[in-house]
Amino acid sequence: MRDLPASPNAPIIVDLQRPIATATATATAADGRADVQRSAAELAERLPEALAPFAQLAYNYLWSWRPGGGALFEAIDARRFALCGKNPVRLLQEAPMPALRRAAEDPALLTRAQDLLTQVHAELDRPPAPGAVDPAHPVAFICAEYGIHPSLPIYSGGLGALAGDLVKEASDEAVPFVAVGLMYRTGYFRQRIDAAGWQHEYWLDTDPERLPAALVTTHEGRPLTVEVPIYDARVSARVWRTDVGRVPLFLLDTDCPENGALERWITGRLYVADAETRLAQYVLLGVGAVRALRAMGIEPGLLHLNEGHAALAPLELAAPALRDGEPLDAALAQARSRTAFTTHTPVPAGNDSYPAELVTRATGALAAELAIPVEELLALGRTHPGDQHEGFGVTQTALHLSHAANGVSRRHGEVARQMWNGLWPDRAAAEVPIGHVTNGVHVPTWLGAPMHALFDRHLGEGWLAHAADPDVWAAVEQIPDEELWAARSLQRAELIAFVRERSTIDRLGRGDVREYVQAAERAFDPSVLTIGFARRVATYKRLDLLSRDVDWTLSLLGGERPIQVVLGGKAHPRDEDAKRTLRAVFELKSKALVGERVVFLDDYDLDSAAWLVRGCDVWLNLPRPPLEASGTSGMKSAVNGGLQLSVLDGWWAEACEPGVNGWGLPGEIEFDHQAQDQRDADALHRLLSDEVLPAFYDRDERGLPVRWLALMRASLRTLAPRFSAARMLGEYIQGPYRMREGCGTPRRR
How many helices (H) and strands (E) does the chain have? Predict the structure, then answer.
């Protein structure tokens, strides 16, 4: 036991014999818990003794969605915390000694740290939730990317953010859950926009030893390693563990001395462009995930494949039965009954497919090891299994090898059934067994502090534990107008302060002219309607609708009832059309008022996303129907009191009550894209001019926008519970997570 300085209220005591550890798996398993504990203890040894709680907190991301968690680390050294990408481990490693001493001598700060540590221990001490998931056989969630926190750069966008939200919700609800991904050494590309508006990409190295992660070791103290045959090599992969509340996230890493340069590069970069390397990543993710879990003593009860990247995991799940001599069909049927699959994209390019020859080279040794004829393996990835000229698709493979499949919104489920009808040629599209579980967002992660405090006062004690209950949110009707508007206005003001600083830095970095840089310092007015449009830049997202009619755009920016717009997003490095769309927006920057009323934030990430969804009054989404699978950024805006102006596609098609809880543009499919774009631009103009602006700017005698507040209340009441991760996880547990024997499996021959 270590005695820490006394607080004004009570002594603070940290028990270093009781470090933070997640609750999954057995106490004797070599699953990395002891390694995380050891890393936290070694970090604590570098610090003043009083800061030991910070070292423990740093190694579990639970701090990041607890109120005041980030502020604790920021209080040590705010500038260093920002420079470290809000990575608490790096902060404690790099903070200058005077800053650490000041923190160690601050009784109030130490009390807050101890309080949070006590909360974390209490959370991890809760027993697993009773129900469909057996604690001895947890759900194994496998995904190519995870958006847990900005300091863990293994994500690119919406798929990763959704994965992170589901993992956090599983922790909050004590659902037995483990997650597996890849430890990318350079992550996803970083973005820099030049003065002409062209996107440039670059990558930064990530050192896992400076992350809140620990290398998993065996009982003998050696790195735990699994081998996967890929192409003509036996690829070794080590395993890193990072704790996300109660859920361990295991990340496979091929940057090992046992591997050659090509094999070490397999986990070098997220969504690497090279097809051979990318296929190698998918073989490693699927097969390696199951091998790593079993090596750590974890036998999953169910695999949840989040997208098709891990489609080969059920083959490895079937490996013991195959080695015992089970026929292939019987072994696959057993694995299928323990596998659920979520498809996230209706865009054909998002469903990876590879030539049969390449797949044969990549998986030939694996097929031989599992005693599976290569042709049988290739057939699993084909819409027409007998067509030897057809390529190998990861989505088809996942559909063949899962007992349940779902899209991520009601409309996406309909689109997916049509897309993959060929796998069930004897069924009508409506009868294809692909359902839907509409995405939801982890409310504690995305909720701004002012709105959080408002809900704490008015929604009842413990409301956050019942975020999916509509009765909880019904109480927003009783929140006084003044309080609701004050919280929203404060979050808008916080966004504007962030935008002014970031846009000034971005413009200086681009080498923009002085006048345009100085405009950033005046950017945005706290009293002006603020619109957000931030997502992956792709042509079907139709960012260009904002600049299609330049005169109209300029009239909105400088009218009597003005708007201000914050933009962000990345174009795929090989998507030249999307890059040209982005450049077209920058061509307006020389126009009057654009420099002050429109900003583009470079290198959009989880951190800037949080600022935007919390502070924008209107969240704009303009996809070309039916190419928006879900669109979770709008859900994040909604829980913060933001209103939606979106095409009726993805989640908004099932959520929108036009003029009641937001506004919708037509969602019909139109093959004449030019006509569709003109129609939707006209609808956007009309809605903004005739409905959005009057609702925001018309004020009563108190200076309050009564119509806007009514829309906010309706939005919170109807959207917040329905599109929370709590509702989403509940639907997975009651639906796809319930194992059953191969119902609705595609015809393989």
Answer: 33, 22
DSSP type of residue 217: B
- Cβ-proximal residues to 54 (8 Å cutoff; 6+ apart), any chain: 47, 72, 73, 76, 88, 92, 103, 113
Would you say the C-alpha torsion 510, 511, 512, 514 has a positive or negative sign? positive
How far apart CA 373 and CA 378 sit, in angstroms, is 9
CB < 8 Å & 24+ apart, contacts of 101-105: 101/48, 103/48, 103/50, 103/51, 103/54, 103/75, 103/76, 104/5, 104/47, 104/48, 104/49, 104/50, 104/51, 105/5, 105/50
Please give the C-alpha separations between residue 708 and each of 484, 530, 583, in angstroms, as whole numbers: 11, 13, 34
Establish whether domains 139-439 and 455-723 are of one fold.
yes
Say whether pLDDT at 20 is over 90.
no
Residue with tokens 């430890």: 183
Cis ω before 208 (30° cut-off from 0): no
- Residue 691 amino acid letter: E
Segment 272-301 mean pLDDT? 96
What are the residue ranges spanned by the domains of the chain? 2-125, 139-439, 455-723
Q: Which runs of E-coded beta strand occur in 506-633?
A: 529-534, 563-568, 598-601, 618-621
DSSP-based helix, strand, coil % in the chain, nearest 5: 50, 15, 40
Three-state secondary structure call for residue 402: coil
Q: How many degrees, rounded to 5, is the angle at CA 541 between CA 538 and CA 542? A: 105
CA distances from 523 to 254, 513, 616 (A): 45, 15, 14
Single pTM value for the model:
0.93
Residue 291's CB is within 10 A of a number of other CB atoms, namely 21
Tell me if the domain spanning 455-723 has CATH number 3.40.50.2000.
yes
Confidence class for position 17, pLDDT limits 50, 70, 90: very low
pLDDT, one tens digit per residue, over 231-253 is: 999 999 999 999 999 999 999 99
Query: What is the distance between the alpha carbons of residues 742 and 466, in angstroms, rounded to a whole number?
Result: 34
Over the stretch 137-160, which tens digit does the pLDDT of each residue have?
999 999 999 999 999 999 998 999
pLDDT band at 749 (very low <50, low <70, confident <90, very high): very low
Task: Report residue 614 CA to chain centroid gap.
Answer: 16
Would the pLDDT of 544 be above 50? yes
* DSSP, residue by residue, 371-389: T--HHHHHHHT-SSTT-TT
Q: Look at residues 423, 434, 432, 410 and name the one whose alpha carbon lies nearest to residue 629.
A: 410
For residues 233 and 729, what is the distance between their CA atoms, to the nearest angstrom? 39
What is the CATH code for 139-439? 3.40.50.2000
Joined tokens for residue 323 = 């080695």
Per-residue model confidence (pLDDT) at position 206 = 93
Take residue 182 and report the two structure tokens written for it: 């890849």
